Hints:
Shape: globular
Helix content: 25-40%
Largest sheet: 7 strands, mixed, barrel
Strand order of the largest sheet: 1-2-3-4-5-7-6
CATH architecture of the largest domain: Orthogonal Bundle
Amino acid sequence: MIRGAGRPPRRARMLTATLAAVAAAALAARPVAAQEAPLFRSDSVVAVTLRTDIRALFRDRDTANAAWHQATLTYAGPDSAIAVPVRVRTRGIYRRANCDVPPLRLRFDEKDVRSTLLDQLRRPKLVTHCRDRDDAEQLVLKEYAIYRVWRLISPYGFAARLVRVTYEDSAGRVRPMTRYGIVTEDPERLAQRLGATILTRADVRIGRINRPFTSLLGVFQYLIGNTDWAVPMRHNVELLRTADSTLYAVPYDFDWSGMVDAPYARPAALLRTRFVTERVFRGVCQLQDELVPTLERFEALRDSITAVFRSVPGLEPRLLARALRYIDEFYAAIADRARFWRREVEPRCMW
Length: 351
């Protein structure tokens, strides 16, 4: 619910200074997590070849029932190339309908990937370049950096690995192309790793999510200039419930953020902004004292966040410089905490 469209009673909204201290402790907490799948235990780029009927796959834009296509994924092993059978299909909404290269979902059989780099993968996503052009590939690299930044901020995040994919047509009708992509953890594996279950309800309000975590989430989305998310309807967030019934909203899909600044991205009309690069706070409502530990955490991570962008291979210098300026603008905005809360958080926050 948007602030101003019906607020909880005053007593329910009044938070004591003790809550800020509790939030500070909660921000540092780590879940008891299982080890990540082997693919996600390194940040180095993995070169893979995806061989399938490329034309048939890319032309499959059925949003209701896309077919699974037989394919082979090959990568370099210690001694020789390792080829793994995989099924692949198109996914997504906007990009599936509007991109030359649609986003993909991979599906592995457990027996085929056992003891390989792909072990423990089930149905991971492959984030692709929208067009077979250098500028479209740059969008993928910026989105990959955002996945890594969120993992700096919270352990409740999707694992991601940058891959260099060669798309090879098994029918010989399409020339091979090689571009960067992102393999992201599938939700079921994420939930298992974090000792949680996936919540499929679409009526969960943001105020029900773990409050210190949601404070982090809202400021993170403000940092990257992302308004294309919402806890109700589970829009670009995966809802998880831990064993103690605590709820978390794990974010994904950042291509409509101001940080990525994709040419196809447009802000929602209700925001009354012209460009996605214009930041709008869409996080949970909170008192100024409650926000302090969140902002302190972001300030402590500033060098690490910029280091993530500097370390992304292939990111063009001019786009790196633009991303670093965008980050600097965020830190300038939160430097005066009272002003940030009064002008950015209080007017647009969500209950």
